[in-house]
């Protein structure tokens, strides 16, 4: 017998993890996306996403990364291969506070001086005095490979996939979705995980969400970069971040300070910051890409029932510029909050 039914709206990393979580509990799951599956237009689609605790604002944030790594390990074990590459990580700013949180959580890390920094980062030209904070336990999640494998995984577990099927707010409120001529679907529960598109699906949430565009540059770089750590808050402006070119990916850089909500992107400023920080003579620029995530004013994620749906529809949004790595935890939260209430209503 099939279990209760779930519709997940959005096949980014949060929708995929949520679908997998409910499938494992025996639910009958359908996943719809406005685009193809996998969807290269989603924020979750890129060669890699960083996972590290170097941006932690509390000891609890560090523990969250620990638990997220545990969640990802479960996925690798299910897939039979890992899409995580441990590169180590280097923070270039705000070391004092971060080392307190990391130390309190028992996360391995050490302060490194300018000489060690130069040994860790190939072709370093300029970085402020004071060195950095290094941890061996940081790395990259090979995001597009994960998304591709998760679509296959959930399909193999019986998930019904609906590509190119934008879901409308009216359908969510009604709790009924047309599948084809004469065929309708009324799931027990709907989870909206529409990323930066959430304000268009649940219009009431639009004022609480801000879309942030970020442009990344991709380079082919000397092989020494394959052994480099990921970089966070780096360079003379303290705002560069970089993912090293592991597992056949390219070196990727962006500057968080240049991500102006809704504003135009200043490519020249990013080029200048990179050239100020690194000797780039042997680098070859390959391409740039722009990507959007959504955040709330206070940075807190939204996980709540959609008003007027009697708790039969929930939305998860505002997952921020660090939201890929935490998807295993988000799926668990959705599972704990949403399914309980819906099962109680049944
Ligand atoms: C440049 C950049 C760098 C980042 N770096 C990191 C990082 O290093 N580490 C990290 O952890 N995170 C990082 N993030 C954040 C992370 O990528 C996002 O938080 C995460 O991918 C969001 O996943 P999601 O599933 O919520 O949304 P998305 O991946 O955007 O997926 C949402 C999906 O919903 C679909 N959708 C929208 N509307 C509808 C509708 N009406 N009907 C059906 N489907 C719909 C969309 O087509 C899309 O496929 C970065 C983000 C950006 C932009």
TrEMBL record:
Protein name: Sarcosine oxidase
ATP-binding as UniProt keyword: no
Record EC number: 1.5.3.1
Uppermost EC category: oxidoreductase
Provenance organism: Sphingomonas leidyi
Cofactors that this protein relies on: FAD
Keyword Flavoprotein in annotation: yes
GO molecular function, one term: flavin adenine dinucleotide binding
InterPro entries in UniProt: FAD-dep_OxRdtase, FAD/NAD-bd_sf, MTOX
Gene3D superfamilies: D-Amino Acid Oxidase, subunit A, domain 2, FAD/NAD(P)-binding domain
Keyword set, alphabetical order: FAD, Flavoprotein, Oxidoreductase
Domain (FAD dependent oxidoreductase) ranges: 6-334
Signal peptide boundaries: none
Superkingdom of source: Bacteria
PANTHER family (UniProt xref): FAD DEPENDENT OXIDOREDUCTASE DOMAIN-CONTAINING PROTEIN, PEROXISOMAL SARCOSINE OXIDASE
